[in-house]
Write a structure and sequence with these properties.
The protein has 194 residues and is mainly alpha-helical. Helix content is 91%, strand content 0%. It contains three helices and no strands. The chain has helices spanning 5-56, 64-125, 131-193. Helix 1 (5-56) runs antiparallel to helix 2 and helix 1 runs parallel beside helix 3. The longest helix has 63 residues, at 131-193. The chain is rod-shaped. The protein starts with a helix and ends with a helix. Belongs to the SIKE family. InterPro entries: SIKE. Keywords: Coiled coil.
């Protein structure tokens, strides 16, 4: 079975499109997972602070509002843990699909390189061909090489764009983390006032 350059280019375009979709989905899942982790940490801190407040009341009964708040936070924490499990499963599924796509892409590139090498060997063994036929064959090989270079260039550009997106996400998450810390500190100050 011979793989044409058009098929490889078509597969490479589809691969690039799917990689973009998977990267977008992975970025979304990563953002959601980070949000869930931050929310869990905030709830744990809230629960710890609540325990300290109850200990300071010297054995008195906790306020009814405080008890209701703890129950509500507990339910929310359980929901967040469930969502976190779902997000982890989705990320694992995305990684498996991406590995399969990259494996197929590598296989096709390998076949094209092998075919190109075989064509080169055939070209060396054909002595009776006319100069025009040889020149046409050389032009065809040059076109294939140019197409391969274009595919490699596209893959390199996509990888650079992905790295840039990841850096942007990391920066955004750091800003969100700082904002969350400020909100938690504000909440703790509010609780200590109450």
């Amino acid at each position: 079975m011979s793989v044409t350059v058009q098929q490889i280019l078509s597969d490479a375009k589809r691969l690039a499109s799917k990689l973009k979709e998977h990267d977008t989905a992975a970025d979304s899942l990563l953002s959601q997972a980070q949000f869930v982790y931050k929310k869990i940490d905030a709830m744990k801190q809230y629960t710890d602070d609540l325990s300290e407040l109850n200990d300071m009341e010297e054995g008195g009964l906790p306020h009814e509002e405080l008890v209701n708040s703890i129950r509500t936070e507990s339910r929310q924490l359980q929901e967040i843990v469930r969502e976190n499990r779902i997000l982890k499963a989705m990320v694992a599924e995305h990684q498996t699909a991406l590995e399969m796509i990259m494996s197929k892409y590598r296989s096709q590139v390998s076949q094209l390189v092998a075919q190109s090498s075989a064509n080169q060997h055939i070209n060396n063994n054909i002595a009776a061909k006319t100069i025009e036929e040889k020149n046409a064959l050389i032009v065809q090989q040059e076109e294939r090489i140019k197409e391969m270079m274009a595919v490699m260039s596209l893959a390199s550009r996509l990888e650079a764009e992905e790295a840039s997106k990841k850096e942007e996400i990391i920066g955004r998450l750091q800003v969100e983390n700082q904002e969350t810390i400020v909100n938690i500190n504000f909440g703790l100050q509010f609780i200590s006032v109450v």
